[in-house]
Each structure stands twice: as structure tokens, then as C-alpha cells.
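Lab notebook page, bench 4
Experiment: in silico fold of construct C2
Operator: M.H.
Input chain length: 290 residues
Purpose: comparison with the prior construct
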Amino acid sequence: MAKREDFPFIHRLRVRWQEVDAQQVVFNGHYLTYLDVAISEYWRAVGLPYPDGFTHHGGDMYARQHTLAYHAPAVLDDWLDVGVRAEHIGNSSMKIGWAVWSDHRLLVTGEAIYVHTSLATRRPEPVPTSVRDQIQAQAEGRPVTQLRLGRWSEVGEQAGAVRKIVFIGEQNIPEHEEWDADDAHALHAVVLNAAGLPLATGRLITIGQPAGQARIGRMAVLRSMRGAGVGREVLQALIDAARAQDTRTVTLHAQTSARRFYESQGFKADGDVFDEVGIPHIAMRLDFQR
């Protein structure tokens, strides 16, 4: 019998009206959708956000086989805990075990076989070593990412890759407005996975700032890793670096959509909303206690 403690990752979701039949019992086919949602979150937790974590290697994971066993029904408004674990990694295939509970009741158990496939040839190819390492690290409770601090000459390639995807590609900021002279003397933070895929970045500027102040900017996280905590990790590293330089106040210009994120880290609004590169922003500040 599947036990929760045997699963290193569990994702929680709620049964919606559209997923139940006339008796308000979950239609059996929806459990594969629950698995699909949970395994996407599993890859994110492993440090392999889908699809970026696999396309970085030139590959993808394709489902080949599913088996399910139904033990009890879920009903409307049940909270479901979907457990996911990698049970075996072969040469090119991977067996994923999974189970669903509602409270103490075991509802479904299953296995899924995925095959790692080359995007170029559409044929199976070996699961990369770094993918195996990420999965093992998560299963053992070890960090699945690493944070690097450095100058542009040291981490600029990785930091620039994230900013190009997020700011230039996703937010349509003109490229000539993204790169500036501050990059050369700023301290940059980058979070990467085991394969060196950059996931998040930000920078700290002290040169040219008022005495006792530093400025954080260019905070960016790949869409597929948002909500996984890597943005918070970057922000905290930059705050710690500012504090170590005897800074009294850290300022930043936050996109208004990210205001609550910065507020959760102690920043406070400092003025009215204004436009910057066509996106609404608000000035925020964090004052260190002395």
C-alpha cells in the first residue's frame, strides 16, 4: 500500500465542478490530468522546469505507458494530495510512481513510463547525467539549484540569458533599453541548476548611489520556475550583499505585478506608480535596522 512518507514530492489540488459526473464523483479519466499537473510541479521542484529543463539538453520526456488502480472515489471539493517519485531510471526511460490521497483515504495508485527523446531526431536517447543528479538530489532532500554571485565578466552570460528571455522576449522591452553601463560594475546573482541552466537573476548597484544606499534591479525568473522560490533566493542574496557593505537602505523599482512579492520580503512602497519601459512600476525601499 502506498504511503505518503515514501514520496519525496506531493502536490495539493482541489476537485473542481467540471471534473465530476452527475453523482459529483470525479470522472476516472481526470486522474491522469491530476498526474500531469503534479508531475509538472515535480519537475519544477527537481530544478528541471518543464520544458526548459529538458530542452536545455536538446531533449524532452514523452509518455509511453500509464497504469492506474482505483481504490476509492474523490468527490467535489475534496483536497487531493498527489505524490510523485522517480522509481527507476534506465538508459532512456524513466518509471514514475504516483498516488493520490484525500485526507487519510488512498484513492488511486499508478505508474507512468516516460522516454527521454532527442528533439532533433525524435528518437530515444540516454537520460542526461545532470537530470539524474537533479532527481537524486531532490529525493534526498539536497539543494537542486546553486546560487552564484559575481561580476558581469564572471556570470554575465548566464544572467543575460535569463534577462533576454524574460525582459526582451516575454515583456517586449527593446533590447537597447535592457543593457546599460551599470552591468559592468554591478554585483550579479544567478541561480542555476546542475546542468548550468540559468533560472533566475538580479543585480545590486552601489556605485553612483547616494551614501549608504544600494539599488537592486533586473530581477528576472524564467516563467517555468516562478513560484519555486528562486527569485526569493536571488533577492535575499543581494540584500545580504548590500548589508555586508554597511548599506542602510536598499531601493528598487518594482513592476506593480510583483509588488506583493517585495512587500513579503520587507520592502515598502515609496511614492506613486509610474511608467518605465511601458510597464507600470513603483519605487520601493528596505531600511536596515541598526
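Observations: The first helix runs from residue 30 to 46. The first strand starts at residue 9 and ends at 14.
Next step: discuss at group meeting.
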